[in-house]
Design a protein that fits this description.
With 130 residues, the protein is mostly helical. It is built from six helices and no strands. It folds into two domains: 51 residues, no CATH class; 72 residues, lambda repressor-like DNA-binding domains (434 Repressor (Amino-terminal Domain), Orthogonal Bundle).
Length: 130
């Protein structure tokens, strides 16, 4: 059996790269393989998320903040690497702005995670009702 449950970061990265390549090709014959890789990647994501909180306990901002610490990234460095403003990253990590669909894709690609990890709902803080 070529594909097994993901146990290492190297294996995870390899599966993510293969998954992205298959999606780019968009061949109908690869549909079952894409589904399998998606399940394996999601399983690994969920296991790693559980190391620092359950899915119910963790929102996308907490995940982003955790990943920034793990990768030793400042807001400025992350903004530079994603080609966005530091202000945008600051507003996201301070719960002042929601993560847009384009940012979900940038974060998921940058951190090699499934987009669902950054697209869960969460509440903004410190905004007054208008």
């Amino acid at each position: 059996m070529k594909y097994k449950r993901i146990k290492t970061l190297q294996q995870y990265t390899s599966y993510c790269n293969e998954y992205e390549e298959l999606l780019r090709k968009g061949l109908k014959k690869d549909t079952d393989l894409i589904d399998l890789l998606e399940l394996l990647i999601e399983d690994y994501d969920n296991k790693n998320i559980s190391e620092f909180g359950t899915e119910e306990d963790m929102d996308p901002v907490e995940l982003l903040t955790y990943l920034m610490v793990e990768h030793n990234l400042t807001k400025s460095e992350l903004a530079r690497r994603l080609d966005v403003s530091r202000q945008l990253i600051t507003e996201i990590v301070n719960y002042k702005r929601n993560i847009s669909k384009s940012m979900v894709m940038k974060f998921s690609k940058f951190f090699n995670m499934m987009p669902i990890a950054f697209s869960r709902e969460y509440e903004l803080k410190g905004l007054s009702a208008a």
